[in-house]
Amino acid sequence: DSPEIKEEVLRKDDRFLTLLKDVYVESRDPPAQVKDRGDEHLPSKQQEKRLTKLGHLEALDVKKVPKGKISLVEALTLLNNHKLQPQIWTAEKIAAEYSLELKEVNSLLEFFIPFTVLEFPKETKKALTGHKPKQLT
């Protein structure tokens, strides 16, 4: 805060400036070293892909997926097929059809269930609309 210190900081010293002009810095990057780690996994080739099995929903989804994976539309389709016809669409058939692991298909069928749409009969709808709603006061 003192003015003497501020003045000393802002003052340029000609001796130091001439010494600074003589300084030359040269920078070089070290040679690149290839790290040889056995624990790192680098992809050696491109992942193998398969065409999706979408049928009439083809425009809604991707065209190719890596083997061992399924698209969203395929997942919904196979879950719905299994729900409607479990004796035909078994876990083994789904695994073979979509190039999946059997344990992954079993987990998929166990933990993911498609929604069911229920429609109320028309007479129930009439009964509900015939009821006079209470007015709030």
From TrEMBL:
It comes from the Eukaryota. It holds the Pfam family UPF0240. One of its GO terms (cellular component) is mitochondrion. Residues 29-50 are annotated as: Disordered. One of its GO terms (biological process) is mitochondrial respiratory chain complex I assembly. InterPro entries: NDUFAF4 (IPR009622). Belongs to the NDUFAF4 family. Binds calmodulin. Interacts with NDUFAF3. This is NADH dehydrogenase [ubiquinone] 1 alpha subcomplex assembly factor 4. It comes from Cisticola juncidis.
